[in-house]
Amino acid sequence: MIRLIPSLPAVYVIARVVWPLPWPLALRLGLAAILLVASQYHLWSRLSSGSVFAPEFPRPVVILFNGVFGAIALAAPLQLALDLVALASLALPGGGWAIPTAWRLSVGFTAVLLAAVAVRQAVRVPPLKDVPVTIPGLPPGFDGYTILHLTDLHISRLFPAAWARAVVARANDLKVDLIVVTGDFIDGSLEARQTDVEPLRGLRARDGVWAVPGNHEYFFDFDGWMRHLAGLGIRILSNAHTVLQRDGGALVLAGVTDRSARATGHPGPDLDAALAGVPAGAPIVLLDHQPANAARSAARGVALQLSGHTHGGMIRGLDRLVARGNAGFVSGAYRVGTMLLYVSNGTGLWPGFALRLGRPSELTRITLRRAS
Q1: Domains of the chain
Q2: Which of 101, 124, 136, 304 has its Cβ near the most Cβ atoms within 10 Å?
Q3: Maximum Cα–Cα distance for the chain, whole Å?
């Protein structure tokens, strides 16, 4: 049952940070046991709910697991850097430097401190980020039009009803014209999350709340979740579009399903279907959970694509690896041909790796402007 790969960083930290410390044996054994247990966090999550994506522990336990798991993930590369320096010293006169106890303690303290900050940054109600977007051919009635972009809420034991209520209250205070959600609403079954998602019923915007599914919806009862979200007043654009009107001008809001849909027997993303029958000349705003297909969207004349999925890479440095799995897109604005792609860092994130350092969560207010 023990999963080997996540145990390796923990074993390394135990061997190179904990065990050489001049502490009583019982203390070192206890700390080693804690690290090994925390390294199996995803296994315990699967045992608690049947899914690695939905740990069903009390929120403080989920936070603690993420903190210790994060400390392991951060301590391992810090200690590795020290070991590489010590190894390199063998090539120098008088080399073979020993690593002082104080340095090992510094690695542990730094990792714990950074992990605590990272978890705190992950679980907070996100701050507002303003993003102006200039669109050629935008009808005059839409100049100054505001869109609140939410994504990757991952409502769960980590992001429960109280957090969702706070997000909804902050969103409604902005009094935007339109609210969009680009998927990954939940982590968990409808039975487990029904109370936690209820606050989303309170989202309000002049032109309503529109959304597309993310990959995590397909991990659970997708059809049940789509019906439930619709019952909360959230209109789902599954390979479809709607036309917004202002002073005789039109703006198309389109959405596609997630790239993972076909693997579960559901319709995959179909941009042709989503854009079928759109008014000629109307600018198109596309909702697509994952950013990887941005070039295809640009080729179809989309003016603005809003995406999430990457969580901004979560940790600066790690974001470059996340970008490689998402066609180079991970956080912020990208010019793709004549289209602007905006990839949000996310409103929440997966509770299985709830860490943020240098990639803060966000409530993204998009303000549309006419090109001069």
Answers
A1: 4-123 (no CATH), 128-370 (3.60.21.10)
A2: 304
A3: 80
